[in-house]
Design brief:
The complex is a heterodimer of chains A (about 250) and B (about 475).
Chain A: E1 2-6, H1 13-25, E2 30-33, H2 44-56, E3 60-61, H3 65-71, H4 80-91, H5 94-102, E4 106-109, E5 112-115, H6 131-141, E6 149-152, E7 158-163, E8 169-172, E9 180-181, E10 188-192, E11 205-211, E12 216-222, H7 226-235, H8 240-248
Parallel strand pairs in A: 1-2, 2-3, 5-6, 6-10
Antiparallel strand pairs in A: 1-11, 4-5, 7-8, 7-10, 9-12, 11-12
Helix pairs in contact in A: 3-4, 7-8
Chain B: E1 9-10, E2 13-21, E3 25-32, E4 43-48, H1 56-71, E5 80-83, E6 92-95, E7 100-101, H2 102-106, H3 114-133, E8 136-137, E9 146-148, E10 154-156, E11 163-164, H4 187-190, H5 197-213, H6 224-228, H7 238-241, H8 247-256, H9 268-276, H10 285-288, H11 295-305, H12 316-321, E12 325-329, H13 337-351, E13 358-365, H14 379-394, E14 403-410, H15 414-424, E15 429-433, H16 448-455, E16 459-463
Parallel strand pairs in B: 12-13, 12-15, 13-14, 15-16
Antiparallel strand pairs in B: 1-2, 2-3, 3-4, 4-6, 5-6, 7-9, 8-11, 9-10
Helix pairs in contact in B: 3-5, 3-9, 5-8, 15-16
Classes of the chains: A alpha/beta (about 250), B alpha/beta (about 475).
Amino acid sequence: MKLALLSDIHSNLQALDACLAHAQVQGADQLALLGDFVGYGADPVAVVERVMALAAQGAWVIRGNHDALALQPPAEVKTVGDSTAQWTHEQLQAGHKAFLAELPLTLQHDSVLLVHASAEAPERWRYVHDARAAGMSLDAARSLPQVRYLFGGHVHFQTLYYQGSTGGLMKFEPTAGVPIPVPRHRHWLATVGSVGQPRDGKPKAMYALFDSARAQLTFHRVDYDQHAAAAAIRRAGLPDYFAERLETGR
Amino acid sequence: MKLLEPETEIDGFVIGDCVHAGGMAHIYRVHYAYGAPNPGFPMVMKVPRMTAGDGAENIVSFEVEHQILQLLSGPHVPRFVAAGDLERLPYLVMEYVPGRTLQDWLDAPELLPVDEVVRLGAAMAHAAHSLHQQNVVHLDLKPANVLIRPDGSAVLLDFGLSCSGLYPDLLAEQLRKAVGSPAWIAPEQVVGVRGDPRSDIFAIGVILYQLLTGKLPFGAPQTAGGLRQRLWMDPPPLRQRRPELPPWLQEVVMRCLAPVAGQRYPSAAHLAFDLQHPQQVVVTARGQATQGTGGWTHFKRWLKAAGMHYQPSPLPVQQIEEVPIVMVAVPHQDVSDATLYSLRQAAARSLGTRPGARLACVTVISPGQTSSTSDEDSETSVHRRYMAQLRQWLQPLDLAGHQVSCHVIESGDVAQALLNYAVGNRVSVIVIGAATHGLKTQRFLATVPIKVAMDAPCTVVLVKQTLPFEQLKVPDEPDGDWDVPF
């Protein structure tokens, strides 16, 4: 199985389509969509409809915190993120909301466990941003004996966590496009990065491809039309901050 | 694992003789059982010894070799053929490389001739550089892991402790313990730094010291304190043990053995360069010394070393790209001042702003210019003349922090001579004038710069002449010595 792992799409249709096309060329035969389909970006309806169509074709789909936020936007707007949640809530139709509301928080298929944030209390959306947080998430996943690979998003960075020589977790920053051996006898945790809102200073969209037969994981960076996505945000009247963010990848 | 019986079949490979039974693994000659295409070279299978009593490090280092061997290519590593599943049946099948390891050479009763050791050193450095260019640091170079082919080139073996910047480092650990062979390990490895190409340069220095004196520069320490000695201690100079060794060679070996990585050669290509051009080595007090470093200096360094600790390293490729060997082809005829000026500017730009890059100025003269009968045209005096020209060209450059050398090459084929030089010295950038080197024939033949650009092993900067001052502009003189732009 070649499993394409896409997370944190954030209503960015241009980036989603570019990653899907890239994954197809790479021979992906299974899709996993790891949540945060909406929020920040200008195309929540088109993105959710794309996700619904992919789910109908067999894609594995789980829910992220921004999907939950769009279903029940905060009454009081405290952050710029909250303002897009309210706007997104108004755009989505009942059918879209019903789809998002039905999504599970985790999914397991054989040795793979999918969770948007941390497997330790998924509903609390804890960030896996260092080896300690990754260790807590992985420890929770170990209660499922089959699981070897824990894939998630939430933090918008591509990182691989692995066991060091005496068992403690180590953090590794991958080079895009390089297949990394991830043999099954170890436990691995990867944050696959963000399709629709990269924050590492490079505007390219992020996703990862897991080849289970070869036990290899490749982190990819994909060119897409970030200026079109930014223009759509400005046209929709959303805060300019989110448009600039896409153009600079910050 | 116990020894495999000959004729056993594993995943389509038939086991032959056991050629090595080491502490970590057994190595067998193997061939394909049936039908499979012959790879065109003999093969061996490495099977790790994993019994109940074996430590975890043994298994992890096999896993590391499994990762890294598949990543590497080129003439300085055994070619990878196949690998067994780590959980089911771990093994590696790779090319069997004929040759002798440096340990075999060391086991001989007599020390090797000095020029032989110098050749071996350059071969080792080239092999290490090839590895570093592929983002891998070996980290366990020792005589038993360096194999010399019959043609004199080196092949590096055993990547069980190696580190690739592209893969998670399975041997890295929060505790940052030293991983490596105590006699050859670099000081920074002692405190757990993995991933610095200059650690391999240190190990090559230890091997050269061993080949030249028959002794290990730091002995074979058994304790952590003994290992830490090399963080501050200089070994006794080579010439204290063998006074007849040339100072330039001591300069080179002791520079490899500097306790601080920043004071060693910045890349293995720079080390090979010095070993291949002894006359260009700048000999300092370090090369002349016949007495060890004094106690007071050691004491001060010991204080400093007490604070040394683990730091992560950037990708090996990034580290060596910052210290290029820049070769500039300086024409000695048919060339305008403006072209020479532009070449100088381009060379300075290519060296970069960081210290450590090296500039090699090369001029190619035709063999007809020297004569064995006339004194004035004898090889040495002609070379001296052109060397002086090169140094004059160099003079306006500010070369603080950069090493520089000048080379006069005799050859009838200018392009080929430049290319051979670039390949032989692992040059990173060639700077050459776009309209130099035999301009008059360019209408009929591919010009030298074009030939060099097409076949170069590295980046080529083609320099167009620009005039810094309007008054330098001289009207074109078709019959004169002036260069004509396209």
